[in-house]
Every structure is written in structure tokens, then in C-alpha cells.
Amino acid sequence: xxxxxxxxxxxxxxxxxxxxxxxxxxxxxxxxxxxxxxxxxxxxxxxxxxxxxxxxxxxxxxxxxxxxxxxxxxxxxxxxxxxxxxxxxxxxxxxxxxxxxxxxxxxxxxxxxxxxxxxxxxxxxxxxxxxxxxxxxxxxxxxxxxxxxxxxxxxxxxxxxxxxxxxxxxxxxxxxxxxxxxxxxxxxxxxxxxxxxxxxxxxxxxxxxxxxxxxxxxxxxxxxxxxxxxxxxxxxxxxxxxxxxxxxxxxxxxxxxxxxxxxxxxxxxxxxxxxxxxxxxxxxxxxxxxxxxxxxxxxxxxxxxxxxxxxxxxxxxxxxxxxxxxxxxxxxxxxxxxxxxxxxxxxxxxxx
Length: 352
Ligand code: ATP
Ligand code: FE
Ligand code: MG
Hints:
The protein has helices at residues 37-40, 48-70, 89-106, 115-127, 165-175, 183-191, 215-228, 233-266, 283-295, 305-308, 312-324, 343-346, and strands at residues 2-7, 12-20, 26-35, 79-85, 110-114, 133-138, 143-150, 153-159, 272-276, 299-301. By secondary structure, the chain is α/β, with parallel strands linked by helices.
């Protein structure tokens, strides 16, 4: 089956066509991504109203380009998927409304995809990962450990009590006057810095519950930066290296805790440790998680960086996975700013 997917929940306008075979393997036929980074960079963060307007301006072209690159017509599609949340509501409305219009005109089924579910399922497309697996979702807006048992069966094992990890990277970058978005710049600085110059706190390390907390660490970096100001290039590099080292250690410890809880709840170990979200692009984090996976006697699956950050292919793929199970949505399905993956956390609004 061929599915068109649309992603507009944050600052990427993306559309993609993905195929899924009867055996469950997938292939990306096209994945067109238009980043809004340049629009938001002067503001040091995503401006929701500007994001929504930019999605409106380019989405039609992005969809047309995705169809063209895939070399298919609308009649060849089995379904049309869009991220229906969680995210910035203006953008979500733009993408979901476009998908509804296309579904109405073509008569194809609509699949309203949870953006987090799409991040979660991407490794099945890229690495053929089998259920159940342990997901570490680390992005600009989310930091979660999730037991993924099947399509639509997610148990959140832990989450951040304050900042998301990507957010912490971005805030540290901002306080050190590095460009937005900060993650990649912090990593670059860290590569030439001394990770042992500063000993920053490792919040919640050793805690049984696989939760995260980043704000204390972020504040510690700020205090040190204030103390040293004005900062030399070496100070910046050393602060980045010491911050990243703390994050890497925290992640390793929290994933171990998550794997323990996974085993208790599932009665077995995960078939893979899957990492998703933009922070998964970080080399130091990837390397450490490779060691952790070995230690946990499982394999590590991290999609390529372009598939870890927001993209249409992950929405199309999640749509295909749902469609293969006959999970489609009515044309009046609502966009949602908030939409937790875990049905318990999602409450009575959750989709059955
Ligand atoms: P969400 O998916 O939760 O709605 P988002 O769309 O902002 O949030 P992504 O696009 O998946 O998240 O990821 C962006 C985040 O990843 C940013 O916070 C960015 O700084 C971070 N990031 C990207 N590359 C790196 C890197 N090399 N090291 C650390 N962080 C990184
Ligand atoms: Fe995302
Ligand atoms: Mg993004």
C-alpha cells in the first residue's frame, strides 16, 4: 500500500509517500522537508503564528512535490495521513485540514496520526524493529521512555519533570550565545572542550523510576557561565563538553532504569532499544546508548538523523501501520495541541 503523510506540528513543513508491503516492510518513495529554521532563528525559538502562516504558504507545493518525486497519482494511494497533534495548534490545523480535503476529494481513507506515535514507529520502517521495544524519545518538546507493545499500545515508563533534553541543549546554547537551534552547536563545541573541567549535577541518577529532570543541570551551567563572564572560546567549549557529559550519563542511567521497569511490566527484555527525536542526532549520546544496548543484551536502532527530526515519512509510515490494521479516522476528527501517547495519561479523550 502507498500512503501520503503530512507533518506540520512544529517548524517543519513536510510531505512524503511511503509504501508498506504485506509482510510489513516499508520503503520511502519521497520525503520532502521544508524547514522554517531561517524564519524563527532571529527570535531564538519557534513563533507559533509565523509557523502556521509559513505552513499555509508552502504545504500545497510540498505535497505536490512529494507526489511528483514518488511518481504516483492520487488514485494510487491507499490512504492519506496527517499529524493531528500534539504540537502547535495552528500548524496542526493546516496539515490536518489539507489531509481532510485531499481525503474528501479522492475518497481515500484519512488517518489522524499522533506525532509521537510516528516518532515511535519510525524504527520499524528503517530497521525492521519488532515489538515489543523500548523507546527513548528525545526531542525539542519531549523526553520519554516508552514501552511499545504494538501499534496503538504504548506505556509511558518515564518522562521529564521539567525541561525536555533538546530544550535544555537549546537553552544552554542560548546562554552561551550559540546560534539557534542550539543542539548541534553545543555538540560541536563539546567536541573540542574539556568535559572534566566542570562537575555538573546529574539529576535523578540512581532513582528507580525512569524519569528525567534537566532544569537543575541547566541552571548549574548558567551559574558557572555567569561566574566566568566574559566567556572565552575555551570556556564555552568546556561548558558545553561538561554539560553534554552530564546529559550522556543521565541518559545512560535513566535508560537502564527504563529497561528494568520494561522487564518487570512485560516479563521480557525489549527486542530493541529505539531512539527517536532530534537529540538522537547527537554523536556522544548515540555512542553511549550503543554501549547501554550491549549491556542490556539488546540491539540499538536509531533512524538516520533526517528521520529522527520531524518529517513526513514518519507520519506516512505510522499512517500505513494503522491502515494495515484498519485503523482509520472520520473526516471530522479534531486536531489536538496536547495528545499523550499513553492512554492512561491521555485520559477519556484517548482514541480506543
Ligand atoms: P517535538 O518532536 O517534541 O514536538 P521538535 O520538533 O522541536 O519537538 P525535533 O525536531 O525532533 O523536535 O528535534 C529538535 C531538537 O533536537 C532541538 O532541541 C535540537 O537542539 C535538538 N538537536 C538536534 N541536533 C542535536 C544534536 N546534535 N545534539 C543535541 N541536540 C540536538
Ligand atoms: Fe517531533
Ligand atoms: Mg523540529
